[in-house]
Amino acid sequence: MQEANLAVTRALADPYDYFRDLAALAGDSAVLPALRCLFVTSALRDDDTGRHTLRVGYMAELIGHALGLDEATCVALRVAAPMHDIGKLAIPDVVLFKPGPLDAGEIRIMRRHSEYGARILAAGDDPLFTMAATIAGAHHERFDGGGYPYGLRGEAIPLCARITAICDCFDALSMPRCYRPALDEAQVLAHVRGERGGAFDPQVVDAFERCWPTLAVAHACLEAQALRLFEQLRSGAALGAQP
Description:
CATH topology: Hypothetical protein af1432
Distance between the termini: 28 Å
Domain HD: 49-173
GO molecular function: phosphoric diester hydrolase activity
Number of helices: 12
Shape: globular
Pfam family, one: HD_5
Radius of gyration: 17 Å
Number of domains: 1
Protein name: HD domain-containing protein
Domain HD-GYP: 27-224
CATH class: Mainly Alpha
């Protein structure tokens, strides 16, 4: 887990690390400005979702390391996973920002964000866009086949989406909502364990448990750094000067 701990250290030291890794992976191609614009657009529309997606990216990298994936794939996960909710750009405000639980019709509308996200990102002709589109389209699939939008089962769900799914759930349960308090660490861990083989790939759950101490400690710190970055995004300070 040495690589994972170094990744967290980088993230906590500098919130611009996300943009630097994006630049390094994209090189001189048009991918960098395109992905950056998508990320910033999504973040500025909804602060909570923006910070959530950034945290999910770092956690996906940690779990990638715990699964033994190579460094390039882990960094690609960190860059692509934050795009998992990009389809929420197409969800009406009345649904996205409803201050309470959604009704059945609103749930159907909200669930379309997976398909919308895959369609938005599929327009990019690049491996990073391909991974991001895959994650966006499949991060709400369940290992037991009961997810959406396609009802994929088991290893038919791409690994990058299986990793992002558990990070998405962990982060969502760990943060308060207007209609429920945040779950504590023991409750979150119990929920994830309870979905082993249900919502989540058992191997990914095992990796999650192996890096649980790092995830639990890093989560609050990542939220603080995400807040800092998004304050700068709102002011415009992060839009041009940083790499």
